Amino acid sequence: MRIPLLLICGAVLTIATTTAQVRRVDDATLRHAGEGSEWLTYGLNQSENRFSTLSQINTANVKELGLAWSYEVGSGGGGQEATPLFSNGTIYGITNWSIVFAVDARTGKERWRWDPEVNQTTVRMKICCGVVNRGLAIYQGMVIAPAIDGRLLALDAETGKVIWESRVAYPQDHYTLTMAPRIAKGKVIIGASGGDRPTRGFFAAFDAMTGRQVWRFYTVPGDPSKPFENAAMKKAAATWDGEWWKVGGGGAVWDGMAYDADADLIYVGTGNAEPWAQQLRTSTAKDNLYVCSIIAVSAATGELRWHYQVVPGDIWDFDSVQHLILADLNINGRPRKVIMQANKDAFYYVIDRLTGEFISAGPFSKVTWARGIDPKTGRPIVNKEAYYGYEAIAISPGGGGAHNWSPMDLSGRADLQPETRTHDRHGAADAGCHAAVASRDWAGASGRVWTEGRAGRLGSRGAADALAYARWRRYRRRDDDDGGQPGVSGDQRRTPDGLQRRQG
Question: Which end of the chain is more exposed for a tag (fewer CB within 10 A), N or C?
């Protein structure tokens, strides 16, 4: 068995791991997260751009780095996907089975370790899509940790002692917690996995100081014979028929999330419809809101403000939960506050984050399921050959998607585009797309795009179109079972379109 390691490199360089005094991470601190030397939230900052401005290590001196210390994370159940956090000289991490640890960043010495003692024997069989955990949150002297068995816990950042514990969901109902929680004005926001099981997707807000649930937003409607939770569910119910609620409906929230503190809006991506085949959940071709969507809700109340459905009536397992990035861009000479996503369906989307208005979308990988995205409606132009029945078809991307859980980054410099990297579930392959643009005025600019070392003219194109030039690359191939269901689409040729069968 391979033991995961946390590795830190150092050499002549001085690593800044201490501050003048221990400080608590509050809302004001998180609003400016990423501006200093600490990594205080999953995406570095609330915009989730994951681009550090630190420059002490650079191309000139990186060769001088060597191993300073290592720390055995311990058995956790598969590859580690969590992003460690760094605050007040301490690195905080979490294993796949939700064991939280704190390590002195300078020495590598363990400061504390806390095991929620998940019943692995019984919970493992309930987990939808792998034993994974993507991270933690830090707030007001606490480390907020999701346990895969559905518990949400606050631990003392100095000692690891439990401060409060809340129940988000139960594994007996096929829910698990695999995403990193986020903080929004004193609330912990988290969703539950379970998208390939008979579950009803949701995400919820908990008071960060007490663990009390403040609100919960379901992503698909429930039994229509019962009162709807809100107007959004009543509207969504009109896009379903049959007895969908008996099989859950899907729409799990298990990864992508961002927060705009000025607008006080929480953005989440929602998962695939469940079951995959539409005829198993509804009797007619309908949109099935709010599966495979990007939605914005009020952080204060949980009320829906807008939605953009990326894949209406999804039948291909095209979750829209991938990493979300907020940015302020100049598009066609107009400043826009946008939210961006390199989606599992192989299109890169740019959406107005205040209104939900579709701005642009373009392919960044091989696409056969759709001819493109209608520029007026923002709806996909689906190829009729992409609709499957009882016979399997070859389609790109496959169930693993062109982009899955792995995060992107957006440079603060004017010459870079977001970058995505996708690994298969065995860690055997690496694929990525990247493009660099000479002007931040992406639409209407006449810059140059670099892709795998080759340059081309960007011309008058939208922000997303730049990524259409990017090439996929794989350093190693490994043929493995795609894990598909009978009659369900999948690309068996093991192209980069089908790298990762499923994550949740």
Answer: N
